[in-house]
Amino acid sequence: MTDKLWYGGDYNPEQWPREVWDSDVRLMQRAGVTVATVGVFSWARLEPRDGEFDFAWLDDLMDLLDSHGIRVDLATATASPPVWLARKHPEMLPVTADGVRLGVGSRQHYNPSSSAYRRHAARLVRELAARYGTHPALEAWHINNEYGCHVSRDYSEESAAAFRVWLERRYGTVEALNAAWGTAFWSQAYGAFDQVGVPAAMPTYPNPGQLLDFDRFSSDALLECYLAEKEILRELSPDVPVTTNFMGFLKGIDYWSWAPHVDFVSDDCYPDPADPDSAPFGALARDLMRSLGGGAPWILMEQSPSAVNWRAVNAPKSPGMHRLHSLQAVARGADGIMQFQWRAGRAGAESFHAGMLPHGGEDTRVFRETVQLGEELASLADVRGTRCDARVAMIMDWDSWWALEQEARPASLDYVRVLAGWYRELWSRNVLVDLVRPTSDLSSYAAVLAPATFVLSAEGSANLAAFVEGGGQLLVGYQSGIVDERLHVHLGGYLGGLRDVLGVWIEEFAPPAPGSLSGTPAPALRISGLGEGGASTFAEVVRVSDAEVLATFTGPQPHGGLLDGRPALTRRRSGAGAGWYLATQPDNFGAVLDAVLEAAGVVGVEAPAGVEVVRRGDRTFVLNHNDHAVELTLAGEPLALPARDALII
Amino acid sequence: MTDKLWYGGDYNPEQWPREVWDSDVRLMQRAGVTVATVGVFSWARLEPRDGEFDFAWLDDLMDLLDSHGIRVDLATATASPPVWLARKHPEMLPVTADGVRLGVGSRQHYNPSSSAYRRHAARLVRELAARYGTHPALEAWHINNEYGCHVSRDYSEESAAAFRVWLERRYGTVEALNAAWGTAFWSQAYGAFDQVGVPAAMPTYPNPGQLLDFDRFSSDALLECYLAEKEILRELSPDVPVTTNFMGFLKGIDYWSWAPHVDFVSDDCYPDPADPDSAPFGALARDLMRSLGGGAPWILMEQSPSAVNWRAVNAPKSPGMHRLHSLQAVARGADGIMQFQWRAGRAGAESFHAGMLPHGGEDTRVFRETVQLGEELASLADVRGTRCDARVAMIMDWDSWWALEQEARPASLDYVRVLAGWYRELWSRNVLVDLVRPTSDLSSYAAVLAPATFVLSAEGSANLAAFVEGGGQLLVGYQSGIVDERLHVHLGGYLGGLRDVLGVWIEEFAPPAPGSLSGTPAPALRISGLGEGGASTFAEVVRVSDAEVLATFTGPQPHGGLLDGRPALTRRRSGAGAGWYLATQPDNFGAVLDAVLEAAGVVGVEAPAGVEVVRRGDRTFVLNHNDHAVELTLAGEPLALPARDALII
Amino acid sequence: MTDKLWYGGDYNPEQWPREVWDSDVRLMQRAGVTVATVGVFSWARLEPRDGEFDFAWLDDLMDLLDSHGIRVDLATATASPPVWLARKHPEMLPVTADGVRLGVGSRQHYNPSSSAYRRHAARLVRELAARYGTHPALEAWHINNEYGCHVSRDYSEESAAAFRVWLERRYGTVEALNAAWGTAFWSQAYGAFDQVGVPAAMPTYPNPGQLLDFDRFSSDALLECYLAEKEILRELSPDVPVTTNFMGFLKGIDYWSWAPHVDFVSDDCYPDPADPDSAPFGALARDLMRSLGGGAPWILMEQSPSAVNWRAVNAPKSPGMHRLHSLQAVARGADGIMQFQWRAGRAGAESFHAGMLPHGGEDTRVFRETVQLGEELASLADVRGTRCDARVAMIMDWDSWWALEQEARPASLDYVRVLAGWYRELWSRNVLVDLVRPTSDLSSYAAVLAPATFVLSAEGSANLAAFVEGGGQLLVGYQSGIVDERLHVHLGGYLGGLRDVLGVWIEEFAPPAPGSLSGTPAPALRISGLGEGGASTFAEVVRVSDAEVLATFTGPQPHGGLLDGRPALTRRRSGAGAGWYLATQPDNFGAVLDAVLEAAGVVGVEAPAGVEVVRRGDRTFVLNHNDHAVELTLAGEPLALPARDALII
User: Fold this and answer.
1) Which end of chain A is more exposed for a tag (fewer CB within 10 A), N or C?
2) 402-441 of B, contacting C, C-beta below 8 A
3) What pLDDT, on a 0 to 100 scale, did the predictor assign at position A513?
4) B201 near B247, Cβ under 8 Å?
5) Which of C399, C402, C427, C398 has its CA nearest to residue C413?
6) Domains of chain A
7) Which chains pack against B, by 3+ Cβ pairs within 8 A?
8) Model ipTM?
9) SS (H, E, C) A183-194
10) C548 an active-site residue?
11) Distance (Å, rounded) from C-alpha A454 to C-alpha B341?
């Protein structure tokens, strides 16, 4: 195992003549590369025909890297099945909700529940593990690649059969399934499990329970693929850690259920360089990764050295930006900074994706930055293994994401956008936050934020209530606790088991809606009190049973005054703790947050706008994301930072 | 039969435990509920397995309602077939134009021409009719539900076969079909009926005649479903009236052809509470329902007590708004005000649709309004059976709707939007209007309006011409009389048989078009004379043979002056009658309308903007839709009305 | 053969009663019609049942036209197969990328690779050629119609088989195919040709090489259809010229590969009358047609006498506009002006498309303009055969079009919009331009422009470099020479073989991109120096090896100053010639163009904005496209032109 930070990238030398390889390892050494990810898209090369394996080139490559001191993150190569397999087993190809069977010619063309795919993948992994499981260059196993990136939902017959098995395991009886899904509505009752199907195209809104269970099943089906490979690796290569690269906020996969099964978390992250919010949004993804691993170090497994190739317009990273994003990851717990890919491709679908070594070669800005970053990461090696300490947690839960974004909801809310809006305010205060689930252990936090936590089980409610009763500050946002884990409405005023601890209930929803026929814009909301000013997105009619009202909606409001004088923000104290309820999204959310943080005794770090300060271990990272120089005072010390520059103290 | 106004809603107690039922009937009594619609989505419960029926729960429910004095509008439950039926007969599932077979899991998943669906539906109806046909609680039969709401066009093989039968019945010979459809163009001639198909996906614009006939056939196919059920009910339950709930301006179904077959018209109506035009647009739908029934009282069968769940953002109804919409329906001929649904659902696709009894229970604004409305409707019982009297008619014709909105037209016009634009001006003058077809009996009207009556048969023209010659005022709008009922162009200047009575012909069309490559906005039109000011949407080059020119287009105009000085509005007097032609949509359409109404001797009721005044029987309804109080004088009496309040005199 | 200019249109009398025909020929004579295109959509009429032919009506028609001195452009009628053929051979119907088989009921419902379609088409053509190949009225053969207009890409099994044959012919071995397509990326290697398929729906971006070859194959598949018909006509009607009507900038077909196979080029052209740029965009299409034929006269085979029917809103042509567009075509090399269609249709999908003889009949503006244009064209008969002389060429290349507009590119550029932007400046200077390919003979040009010439082969580069070395001025625009003809990136700084002659290389791309999450607009670019001012669309980081810098990007720029001070425009002189490189699209592109033209010694004609001056043979056409009168001086002579009027000197 290396004792350095990982630095390097995906390396696909099978796409280049052999003489290029020697140039590659020489330049990798110059760039301080410590680890290369190999074999991600090599299945067709490793097994050119059914059951015929060719490892000679990979033997050569592994030895070449080893002899140059570059360690290998070896992929199992199952992410992109070879053409011959799809031709032999066309039933393994994915099917869309409209019944279109997707073809070969791109990548990830497999139905996760396909037995043919799983069988052939297992055979390949067994061969690889047997051959390289003890290779001296082997640093880690990299199972598959970006699971669910393109195909996370499959509507084939084989998936339908697997879904039925999954449902029978979950519910035991079809009566239980009917009760959970509420099939009495719209005459949807099933007489037996074999009548159940996947939620493919239908005349109108599908059953919500069916949809949510299909989301859960689909995440689990991919997890089964992962676990099947992992089991083989464990058997044949027991001492080498195993991971698969996550993709940040990927709706298709519930990473909470995956994280216990990776030896370390790793992530692919591609913020848009043109986005002014790329820094806070990147930080949110890094915090998620750290949280998934329970605070343990993780690896940034892919990022682009500059532009990507899949946006409508692909901006390059500004000079220095790639270093900032990399240091941001280290500051927030990463022990490795990997890129896609080492050498920019010459052909294929990603040939306009930046590489550490660009099309233009060594005399380029990007390659110079590649070398500089290698040097800096080498100097940071002793950050390995250190941790970050967060006193605030924010709930991030795939069930709520999936359920909130179904159709036929009170309003079309974007779950991640809501979270990111709250997070941005935490980030701008340099308050470190962990992501948690409603049922997570909250004992180490002083404050917990729950934006749009639409799905709330009895266990989740109890856990959150106990947190307040234990002295914590809990801020619950609109559209939380609306349904239970079966998507049954919490009757009697929503909020489920939180009603007592919050001291409020919700009478009705009053989102500011644009007029559908006349196209009039949605009317403005206004609130007075804490966080006063405009508000948007959503509003609820709150009824107070036992709480202070800290802010109210003030007229003139939409809906004929329905909201006038109603609570916008409430608090119910419970000893040292308190339950806060926020019924809308104030433009001045920061004021609400400040009040919660103050009550929790959480203090951030003051810094100019756009300057990120993070503490990891005994180092403090100061990152100036601005296009201008800044001056600040940190721990009493005045500091000056040029545009897009960083300081590590 | 009840002698009260209907008041109540869809009641789906099969979704709730039995103990809730008792609470329901108690609360229904408190709310003044007189009728409950039962069984709409109960097929799977009534027939859990093929041919096995379970009526015990419905027996219980019918008796429970009966014992509490609540009458039953009993649905035939055929709207949402059970899963077992679809699994047994997958060919009954609908197919889209792209060939996608829609699945179970939502509702209305049947192809209207499916023999398996029809056969099983008939068996269920026969069972229901035999069992409940003489039940003392039975007020009416409610066949199916919202026919064509989601699936009004089906492209399956079974539909294609039915379409061929329908065509052969219509045309007799394939030569007649070829002539009607103009298949000589684009080499589309059919050699036999069995070569004809449905207009599924094709390389470019389908044959217009094929499209229109498929629209007609599809409406008829659903009507056949209705009639098959009705025949059984007539046989087994001869004294109980039968209806099916229409859906206002539903493009898929020509309600004119359906209306003679219902014993009373009923309607589902869901205006957007956030839409400032919800009042006039709702009024238009109510007038359509009254007109479909030839002026007879009708039932508002569904409306939402507050928000729905299927818009992108679902606004609640403002306080008082639900009462206003209900009284608007009564004023315009309704003998009943029903809601979807009694109790807000706990699970399923519509659990966020408001109920008369909300999730929050009795201590809620919505339930209080439910109770108040029940009281008010009870006091209005003697309005039952009274009628409204309209002296103005407006043409509303599905053929024109279908044909005008085909592709490959002079311009993309929205038929209902054009109608609604004209109607809004009538509504704001409190002039009651009936909707009619071109061939309707017009003898009771002083003025007839014909906006965008694109399809005009010789019979229709003759009827309208006779109306003018009999002393009526006829206002014809642009894009009227362009084609006949086979969609053959009326050669020689369009307008068909109206050319003489209008004294004009149309030389060419000159819609103000935006520049397609450069994206320049459409240029403004201007007119001088009657209704002077701006104009939009469409314009035509009018040639006058024998008419007065009341308004002209004035330069500078688009199209290089093509319209300059051309007639925008003409009139040809014919004794006491006159034919008016309007070649564009003036912003100041009201001035044109005023002139026509004055000539017709029609006088509305003056009232402040947003105040609706309607007379039914000997009552006058005054509805203030504004968010502010108003004062007005009615029949010499000064009145004051608070915001969103109503007065019945 | 006629010695007049062609004037007339598509004539479809089979859609009208026989008595209308006599009226038609009488009115054609009045309108100066010289040629009628007959039979385009007559297959079903000519062969009403499989193998049963009916030519009686066409005999009658040919003789009728002949007896009135109207010559015939006889279509082979294969553009719209009869229904019976599709019913007999459903496999001939096209299939979309999503697997939807398109149906009959519109037109062009055939898969170009269908053997059934080709076999039946050949039989029909043989019958027609045998019968009419020597008819005295026959002026030309018109093969099929608008090839590829609706269906240029087909994803059926039969097309896949043909694609495999095409690939094997192109590559010889599957190894060569794998190398060309770069299938090592994403594990896409093929083991044999029979594993290759068409690029139908797949999980994400298809292989770029597969896509481009499918584009090339699809164009070739249609060309095979054309050539099969042509071979029969050559055999049976050897002396009659053959054409097929092109469609201007049709992405689906590479007309450069087709043009050598037509005896004369013909084109269908439908600029939007509402578009202020319809004149320059029309001119560009005409110049393409002249260039495809190597400068030989061509026929404008279809244009609309006024409005079309397939835009969202269809503007009529302003008075005089149709004449201007017609004369523009003559000025730019057309020997004929044909319309779709002679008589406006009464039924069918195009019944709202204008005709030379409108629905309104003879007493209409459009028919009057029809007659006037006929008179004017008669007076211009001696322009036939004369040529235009262009000293400037612009590259227009389907490979670059197809490749640049694939997904996963540095930015989403619209190839034709880029070309049109450059062309507009040439047009406004009245500089005539030929369209060429990179490998065309450039010896007659003083300047060559290469906008976004994304694909550049070694031969293309060498040809362009030789042009500069021979004294020419070459202006190369951004995103040129990025890849070779296999879409392999030109490593080492892009530009391929042009690097030396331009003296620059490209380090990276820096398009101004909007922020994806926050929706911020794309930031502005600015340049100083030649063409100073704003810039847009794209920018590149240029490295100079041996060139003058004529303009630079000036801060503040996007991307953190990445572009600041970098070259925006460079020039490398090479004797009398020079290679110019333009790294962005300046708003003031005209200044750059002026410098290039001046260096090339090319002088346009000064005229007021919107006035087009073109010289053909010894005539000069002066066309005032403005809605206002202009005065100008031409060859020292003062001229005055009314709005939308023309002068031929």
Assistant:
1) N
2) 407-412
3) 87
4) no
5) C402
6) 157-210 (no CATH), 392-600 (3.40.50.880), 611-648 (no CATH)
7) A, C
8) 0.96
9) CCHHHCCCCCHH
10) no
11) 24
Tokens of A96: 């869309």
Q: Kindly state the average pLDDT of the residues C560-572.
A: 95
- The CB-based long-range contact list for B98-101 (8 Å cut-off, 24+ gap) reads B98/A98, B98/B200, B98/B201, B98/C98, B98/C100, B99/B155, B99/B200, B99/B201, B99/C100, B99/C101, B100/A98, B100/A99, B100/A201, B101/A99, B101/B156
Q: Does the distance separating the beta carbons of B488 and C347 come in below 8 Å?
A: yes
d(CA A424, CA A590): 9
pLDDT digits (tens, 9 = 90+) for B497-528: 999 999 999 999 999 888 776 677 887 899 99
Task: Pick C349's closest partner by Cβ from B186, B201, B513.
Answer: B186
How far is the C-alpha of B196 from the C-alpha of B174, rounded, in Å? 10
**Which residue among B197, B208, B507 places its CB closest to the CB of C104?**
B197
Which of B356, B397, B142, B399 minimizes the C-alpha distance to B265? B142
Residues 6+ apart with CB under 8 A from C18: none
**Residue A361 parent element (H or E):** none
- Which residues does chain C have within 8 Å of residue B515's beta carbon, measured at their own beta carbons? 272, 274-277
The whole-angstrom separation of Cα C642 and Cα C527 is 40
| Average pLDDT value for chain A | 97
DSSP characters over B245-296: EE-SS-TT--HHHHGGGSSS-EEE----TT-TTHHHHHHHHHHHHHHHTTT-
- Residues of chain A contacting B315 with CB distance shorter than 8 Å: 510-513, 558-559
Across the interface, do C318 and B487 touch by the CB < 8 Å criterion?
A: no
Tell me how close the Cα of A566 comes to any Cα of chain B, in angstroms: 13
- What is the distance between the alpha carbons of residues C278 and B518, in angstroms, rounded to a whole number? 9
Is C631 tagged catalytic? no
**CA–CA gap between residue C132 and residue C124 (Å, rounded):** 12
Asked if the Cβ–Cβ distance from C489 to A365 is below 8 Å, we say no
Cβ-Cβ contacts under 8 Å, B81 against chain A: 187
State which H helix or E strand residue C125 sits in. helix C115-132
At residue B144, the 3 state secondary structure works out as: coil
Q: How far apart are CA B307 and CA B316, in angstroms?
A: 4
Place of tokens 């026509």: B596
The answer to whether residues A508 and B365 touch, using CB atoms and an 8 Å cutoff, is yes
Angle, helices A278-292 vs A321-331, to 10°: value is: 30
Q: How far apart are CA A200 and CA A155, in angstroms?
A: 6
Residues of C with Cβ-Cβ distance to B206 under 8 angstroms = 105-106, 349
Q: Which of A537-541, A555-559, B594-598, C82-86 has the lowest mean pLDDT?
A: A555-559
Question: Between residues 336 and 355 of chain A, which touch chain C (CB distance below 8 Å)?
Answer: 344-352, 354
Q: pLDDT tens-digit profile of B458-489?
A: 999 999 999 999 999 999 999 999 999 999 99
Q: Is any Cβ of chain C less than 8 angstroms from the Cβ of A58? A: no
Specify the DSSP class assigned to residue C439.
T
Whether A514 contacts chain B with CB within 8 A = yes
> How many other C-beta atoms can be found within 10 angstroms of the C-beta atom of residue A65?
25
Which pLDDT score is estimated for B635? 87
Query: What average pLDDT does the segment B371-396 reach?
Result: 97
What's the average model confidence in pLDDT over B573-581?
A: 97
Q: What is the DSSP letter of C555?
A: S
Cis peptide leading into residue A556 (ω within 30°): yes
- Which of A559, A518, A548, A551 has its CA nearest to residue A534? A551
What DSSP string describes C135-152? -TTEEEEE-SSSTTSS-S
Tell me the backbone φ, ψ of residue A452, rounded to 5 degrees.
45, 45
